[in-house]
Amino acid sequence: MYKFPKDSQLNDPKFLFGVATASYQIEGATNVDERCTSIWDTFCATPGKVYKQHNGDVACNHYNLYQQDVDLISSLEVDAYRLSIAWPRIIKLDGSVNQKGLDFYDRLISALEEKNIKIMATLYHWDLPQYLEDEGGWLNRETSTKFAEYVEVVSSYFGDRIDFYVTLNEPWCSAYHGYRYGIHAPGIVGDKSGFLACHNLLLAHGLAMPILRKNAANSKHGIVLNFTPNYPVDDSAIEAAKFADDEHSHWFIKPIMEGKYPESVFQHFIDVMPTIEENDMAIISKEIDFLGVNFYSRSMVESGRQGKVSDTILKKLERAEARVQEFNDVSAEDTKAEQLQKLMNQKNSHYMNVDLEDVERTHIGWEVHPDALLKLLTDLHETYNLPPIYITENGAAVDDHLIDGVVDDEQRYRYYQNHLSMVDQAINKGVDIRGYFAWSLMDNFEWAEGYKMRFGIVYVDYETQKRTLKQSAIKFQEFLKARKQGLLA
Predict the structure, then answer these.
(1) HSE-up (13 A, CA, CB side) for residue 238
(2) Could you tell me which residues come within 8 angstroms of residue 274 by beta carbon, excluding any fewer than 6 positions away?
(3) What number of other Cβ atoms are within 10 A of residue 201's Cβ?
(4) Is the pLDDT of residue 486 over 90?
(5) Please, how many CA atoms are within 13 Å of residue 224, restricted to the half-sphere of its CB?
(6) CA–CA distance, 457 with 470 (Å, rounded to integer)
(7) Between β-strands 389-393 and 433-439, what pairing exists: parallel, antiparallel or unpaired?
(8) CA angle 293-113-152, nearest 5°?
(9) How far is CA 396 from CA 348, 365, 413, 419, 443, in A?
(10) Residue 377: in which H helix or E strand, if any?
């Protein structure tokens, strides 16, 4: 089992341990009970966008197997489950409420309540209704208002039955992957569209906060941001790494915590900045009860070309990328994550991402560097006046194989042990961390990577939908059982 120093807060039952999933990645049942089409349904149906044109039509069939999955979660002895609610299941094209969608989440929440499992519900985990994308999606300021209306429906219906409400999961991914680099749905490319989507997403978060407080006064309300801290390859790249952090981390957390965007990035991209209306930053910086931190790896950078890439070059790159995606099924060469890094390097004018040699990597190609999590947490603690933190995602993609009923995912459980040790050290350094959610509960649809990558602590046979605990899950189970029995204090 996982082991920590005897006086570690992780050994205390007050520290929340959970597992996490997302609606489109596990639910399936995309055409039942009046669910609307999402941007991911459309994106998956577009040739070249997703590995082998995989999709979420069936995924883990959680929509039909939710009771089995709740029993599984309970068997792991975890305290909490982080799920997401699918907007396309809740609000119909005509704006009316889909009671069948609410009924599904009511059944799921009731099953979790029966097992005394705390619930963290993410209200937006990237599956925007396609009918809103048809009106501009996150490039349309009105989508922020539509999000607030959707939040009103969900929070007024479930109220305090949900312990933690998350407005958005990783707006960096929604905006940059979806509207800047085109790697995720809806597949739009451009700096201007990327930054506009950023702003409208953060505005949606801010508009939702007072609604959540009104409808679920006893619940906790926050947002989940992803962080991939940037490290300079040498002293000449220190400023480049700082700029990269401003663009990819502080661009999202600083408006929430301080009501302003990083000046360095704002000035560098001044020509493509969105219009910021008078009260926007006050809305975005509404107080939050907790910050969700998602962490997987770090990024190494060196100084890039100075000055901006010309529009002509950008258009050539976009056409080249379109041709690559049209014919590419990503069968053996670059993962979509690696394609993204190359695309960012081609387009970036201030820094370049570089890969170190002779370092441990996960199956998706991300470097394993636990110390970066400790540094991230302490740096955020020193930079901002933060609310309590929950590690809402952390985990590793491993090339898992089920052999004689066993999945020995040694790299994954070593990854968890080492990263949890960093969480323990961060707490000892004064960072207020209240909980940890492993990503993910089970193997699932991994966005542009399709079903090629397995992040789960539970193995899913997609043909039979049989679930099998991997060794990483068994080690969580053993640790949490011993903790509940008071054997670790």
Answers:
(1) 2
(2) 192, 195, 196, 198, 199, 200
(3) 27
(4) yes
(5) 30
(6) 6
(7) parallel
(8) 65
(9) 27, 10, 9, 11, 11
(10) helix 371-383
Hey, what amino acid is at 209?
A: M
Instruction: For residue 434, give the nearest of 275, 309, 293 by alpha carbon.
Output: 293
Catalytic residues: 170, 393
How long, in residues, is the chain?
Answer: 489
Q: pLDDT tens across 227-273, in order?
A: 999 999 999 999 999 999 999 999 999 999 999 999 999 999 999 99
Gap between the Cα atoms of 394 and 472, Å rounded: 13
**Cβ-based neighbours of 432, under 8 Å, separated by 6 or more:** 381, 386, 387, 388, 389
pTM of the model: 0.93
DSSP state of 336: H
In 331-398, beta strands by DSSP E: 351-354, 389-393
Residue 124 DSSP label: -
Mind listing the pLDDT tens digit for each residue in 44-101?
999 999 999 999 999 999 999 999 999 999 999 999 999 999 999 999 999 999 999 9
- Give the H/E segment covering residue 466: strand 466-469
Query: What residue type is 198 in one-letter code?
Result: C
Tokens at 330, concatenated: 């990503």
Quote the tokens at residue 335. 């993962």
Token pair in block for residue 5: 């120093």
Tokens 């969608």 belong to 101
H-only helix segments in 216-335? 238-245, 251-258, 263-268, 280-284, 311-327
pLDDT tens track for 20-33? 999 999 999 999 99
